[in-house]
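Q: Here's a chain of 351 amino acids. Please give me its 3D structure as tokens.
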Amino acid sequence: MKKIGFWGARIENIGLGTQTWEWCRHMNPAKIMIADLTPQNKLKGYPERFPEGTPLFQIWADEKLIRKFLKGLDVVVCTETPYNDDFFNIAREMGVKSVLTFNYEFLDYYEKPDLPFPDVMLAHSSWHFRQVSKDFGDKCKVEYLPVPVNRDVIKRRQIKRAKTFVHVAGQTLHEDRNGTEIFLKALGHIRTDLKVKIYTQHDLFKPGSILDLGIDPKNLEVINQDLDNYWDLYKTGDVLVMPRRYGGLCLPLNECMAAGMVPMMPNIDPQTEFLHDRMLTPVAKRSPIVARAPQIFAYDVLPETLAYHMDLLHTSNHGAVEALSNYADAYAEVISWSALKPVYDDFLEKL
């Protein structure tokens, strides 16, 4: 078996934190290096999520540390960035195969095409996968593997009614990626007595602002808290509403389906490839946004349309909601760690 190292695990309660933590505890790499960016982003860190004594660097790694980490490894994996522009050159010089998992919108090579490439760029979504293959396939291999979901910590619930609708706002995101503003506006158009629960890690209602949500306060709960365990987001609630404006990998989407929750997402790629038609909300317009990758569009659903979709699910009969919950559960099983770990093992072993 090859010796695998994971470089740049994150310790914050953000998407990268969840993704790298779960990867390390399921793949059990021989070496782990933490990238501690908490001094920069001021977020709480959880280094205890990794084995005691796991080394770390802050913000940027020097060559000496990189070489010490790579020594004795066959393969090194990192997510989004290697935290040093020469990392992949050093790995290649030392005979270590390198894998970079990426998100298309923040792919550095579009802004800095002269950066060293890894041996493999690994996409976690089909979103713009063909474009990346076309643009960089002559520089390195470009592969696709979904991000697995941990069904051991996210427990499946039996959901037969769409009573409580959950939105995960999370941290402040580029161009309001999760569509939180659209969701809040939609609440003013709700016509049924459905309940709403919002999880946020930033202040949605700034002092001095007046935002009339148009929903009975007793039916609305806002949890402004950095939950220690991400799976607590899915212990209650029946539907996850995410009018996500752009992006490929969406961890809350995968995680909610593992709980049997029904997701509501805009009718755009990549979720059109695997979600049921009744989970998709029609979009009304698109607009270009600025990111590292070229030609990215953000899509908006109308707040009135989103509210109608929520009301429609809320008033659906038991069998219809239960069928959608079962559909979500079946998809979550396909991308579970139990299903995909052998695929990842085989992928890394064949590098």
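Q: Can you summarize the key feature?
A: The first helix runs from residue 15 to 27.
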